[in-house]
Amino acid sequence: MLHLVLFLIFGAICVAGAVNLLVQRHPINSALSLVAVMASLAVEYLLLGAEFVAAVQVIVYAGAIMVLFVFVIMLLNAGEEARTGGSRVAILFGIPGMLAGSLLVAWVLITHSGTQEVSAGALPGPPREIANLLFHDFLLPFEVTSVLVLIAIMGAVVLAARPESIEQQKREG
Amino acid sequence: MPDNYFARYLPILIHFSLAALLATAIVLLSWIIGYRRPTRAKLSPYECGMTPVGDARQRFSVKFYLVAMLFILFDVEAVFLYPWAVILRDLKMFGFWEMLVYIGIVLVGFFYIWKKGVLDWGGASTGRGEV
Amino acid sequence: MSLAFQASQALPRGTDYLRILPELVLSIFGMIIMVLDPVVDQRRNQKALGTLALIGSLAAIASTLWQARAPGLAFWNMVQVDTFSVFFHFLITTITAVVILTSYEYMEVQQIRVGEYYALILFGAVGMCLMSSAVELVLIFIALEISSISTYILAGFRRRAAISSEASIKYFLLGSFATAFFLYGVALMFGATGSTSIPTIEQHLRSGSIPVLAYVAIALMFVGLGFKVAAAPFHVWTPDVYEGAPAPIVGFMSTAPKAAVFAVLLRIMFQIHAPGRLGLIWVAAALSMTLGNIGALVQQNVKRLLAYSSIAHAGYLLVAFAALPQNGIPSAMFYTASYAAMNIGAFAVVSHFGGAGERYVTLEDYSGLGRRSPVLAAALTLFLLSLIGIPITAGFFAKFYVFSAALQANLVGLVIIGVINSAVAAYYYLRVIVVVYMHDPRDESVLPAVPLELGAALAITALTTIYLGLLPGRVLDYASRSAGDLLH
């Protein structure tokens, strides 16, 4: 019971934070709502028994990724955004489509949550169990993520570089 | 999930509550007890004795962004070390090697950014600084 | 799922490494280039870095052929090497090699820094190869991310052109959104079946009733993957991205990642026996063919025209997914290979003709190409005829097999839509050929000679196009055997 109550409270905070993120006009306010979303998600993970993922959520998302967001906001010197009317496609198709999609998934989950589904808490959550999976069964995906990190490093450096300094000016003519 | 699952997180909950309580208390108390006689000088932003001029939000060098970005990448790498450290004894030597390969690959990236001069914040770039 | 950790059987064996050898080779060469890039003088070693990448991709082709002799699972049921994965490995590594050949001259002319470019192509190929052999949705997701992120970055490599940065950011934003859909689908599939391993999911779905959640999961995964192959209605990014990205990269990203994603789709749709696939694919295929061809009719920019054409071709290919497995799979595989040959060839011509800053990309610029450079014009004509589907080119048999597979599954409506669309498509491809041969050149200046590497790339793609158009038998046989492997 306590479980369900906590789940609903933090789920509500999470959704409210996400909506607030979208409606806020100042990027910093949006970024701070994102912190609320991330933190409440971490609690949700904890409620599902995923202790390690909850900790990583706080360390990586609420910690590191948010630092990056704040940096970017400063970097761009982003001020208050102008209100636009919103795209017509988004209003006509996007919002109804999203609502219909989430209602469908919710309906399926509520009406068809039979015995087949995996129950929360039955899955690996503590660091030791995660580690057994990560460094044995899922060893290959784990090692492959290092290639992903390399690509990200190169992408950051390439896209942040100034084009003039790379190319030979003299050939320009 | 063990029965005492939530009980195990009770200390953290107490910790968070205390932190929130303390923060609220400090702000509230200083607001209630404190004397407020604002003058113009007191209200101006504190800037080490200088008169503040212009907008505080200035454009930052792209290097800040790069460093933040690279920090995340190495942060993600470090996160993997926690579960690895937990079961290192069970994994024996193979576990050592698999992490060594992972760190070795990420170190290639570190070598790359080093040589690229991303970490070079001096005025005249010494390496083939292209950033 | 067993959570018990058995330390005794922990170590992977030699064959495990053999079964990921192409990926290992590509990663190692990618890392060597990455380390060399800031160390060596780029201006003098431009060609050397490219050659290193070429050697890497050739070594990957060789190791693919080597690993073909040791089929089986590796790394605790993560990766499966069989004729199916070998087919796609061979295709992807060959595409990588040919694209590197087409890039030599382009990089020189556009003055783009080369190190990261070649490293990213090789790393991207790692992801694509893994996608074709992975039988675990988690690994597929990571491989998909590797392949996607490297193409996002490659799309923005013309740093001096604003349009290229625009392409990169558009591709990145929409692409990450699509990947999120795929990931959500994977999560729901795990919720429905308790596993992310494709063979386990298949067993679970076969025994007993299919959970409704599995339908939702398949639909969400299809949305994510449909975006990556530019199938309508998830195609809107394609023209802008293809217009902005460097031409050789467009040749790369319209073929290699698509081949990899189609391999994943084949596994999900046929190996899992995806419930409810028919409706999804029917709509997506019909929409892609129609919207792609209608869009292409009004294009004046050759790159945009080929972008819309690639949407249409994704539609033709999806038709095969609606067919029965035993002839749907081989025809889809044959189509992927043929499309790769003709499309890379076409973009090789576009990248050479574009000149510095890709100045010459409109249809008008191509007028009189037949007189100015007969060889280029002939090659372009061959590729365009193949894209139409004229006999003795690869495109003919590709379409023929797909449509006959669809007819055997009684998909008459879809085939009719496909045939009408092929006729419409002939109009805009022929329009290019007419401009090339019938119009007077606007500019009589001599075109730069075709360098050796680009010539080799054109020769390889042209010969493959003709070979598949004359003797499709061997490739199709191999594809049919792969289909047997995939379905056990």
Can you describe what's shown?
The complex is a heterotrimer of chains A (173), B (131) and C (488). With 173 residues, chain A is mostly helical. Chain A has 2 domains: 1-80, NADH-ubiquinone/plastoquinone oxidoreductase chain 6, subunit NuoJ (Four Helix Bundle (Hemerythrin (Met), subunit A)); 123-166. In chain A, 75% of the residues lie in helices and 0% in strands. In chain A, helix 1 runs antiparallel to helix 2, helix 2 packs antiparallel against helix 3 and helix 5 packs across helix 6. The model of chain A is unreliable at 165-173 (pLDDT under 50). With 131 residues, chain B is an all-alpha fold. Chain B is flat. Chain C is mainly alpha-helical and 488 residues long. Chain C has one domain. Chain C is 76% helix and 1% strand. Chain C contains 21 helices and 2 strands. Chain B binds chain C through residues 87, 90-92, 94, 105, 108-109, 111-112, 115-117, 127-128, 130, and chain C through 5, 7, 10-11, 27, 31, 34-35, 37-39, 113.
Features:
heterotrimer, A: 173 residues, mainly alpha, Four Helix Bundle (Hemerythrin (Met), subunit A), 2 domains, 75% helix, B: 131 residues, Methane Monooxygenase Hydroxylase, Chain G, domain 1, flat, disordered C terminus
Write the topology of this structure.
The complex is a heterotrimer of chains A (173), B (131) and C (488).
Chain A: H1 2-23, H2 27-47, H3 51-75, H4 88-111, H5 127-137, H6 139-160, H7 163-166
Helix pairs in contact in A: 1-2, 2-3, 5-6
Chain B: H1 5-8, H2 10-33, H3 40-43, H4 62-86, H5 88-116
Helix pairs in contact in B: 4-5
Chain C: H1 14-18, H2 21-39, H3 42-67, E1 72-74, E2 79-81, H4 83-110, H5 115-133, H6 137-155, H7 162-193, H8 198-206, H9 212-228, H10 238-244, H11 247-253, H12 256-271, H13 277-297, H14 302-322, H15 325-354, H16 369-372, H17 374-388, H18 394-408, H19 412-438, H20 452-470, H21 473-487
Antiparallel strand pairs in C: 1-2
Helix pairs in contact in C: 2-3, 2-5, 3-4, 3-5, 4-5, 4-11, 4-12, 4-15, 4-20, 4-21, 5-6, 5-12, 6-7, 7-9, 7-10, 9-12, 10-14, 11-15, 12-15, 13-14, 13-19, 14-15, 14-18, 14-19, 15-17, 15-18, 15-20, 15-21, 17-19, 18-19, 18-20
